[in-house]
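Entry for the shared binder. Reason: the reviewer on the internal report wants the predicted structure included alongside the sequence.
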Amino acid sequence: MLLHIEGVLTPGQVASATKTLAAQTWVDGKVTAGEQSAQAKRNLQVPEDAPAARELGEMILGALGRNPAFVSAALPLRVFPPLFNRYDAGMAFDTHVDNAIRFAGPLRFRTDLSATLFLSDPADYDGGELIVEDAYGEHAIKLAAGDMILYPASSLHRVAPITRGSRWASFFWAQSMVRSDEQRTLLWNLDNAIQALTLKVGQTDPEVVSLAGTYNNLLRMWADV
């Protein structure tokens, strides 16, 4: 499932984040790349252990926890602490697949989902599209500041070269309670149908209660917690 989630951060949060990031020391983005990805990666990154990165990461994690679309689509068990990257003119990230396992201190994360949260206004740069490949072809993604794209971490993807300006973003991964993208997509669609029906007939309607029961029983069957 490829999902555009609007307004994860407010304009005020985006402005605060970019002001903070502008004051940071940026390093070569290869520091968080695997052996194969490092050969394809040409960007800059705020060090993972920078206090500002941790503070901004906590703000993003809080926003994600309050975002019903993210919670419903990702069914997150763990979310990797958000990182921050920057692509200036001439920089790009060639086609790659994200590492299957990430480490955050003593914790190991299975990367079921990848996320890019855009922090730059798309009018401020040319190029820099996130291009994700799936069974239906290539999808070029360039979102408003504060919006996020969520997609399977198993997808081939790349960042197109920047030809003007600078593209800043936060990126991270989530380990879902439901490993299968196909099962997560079914649960997402069912949850949305239940919510839409609830608005029409109310939470106590027998059909809503029945569908909610089906949703929870499927989640119980598929979840690994």
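Summary line for the report: The mean pLDDT is 95.
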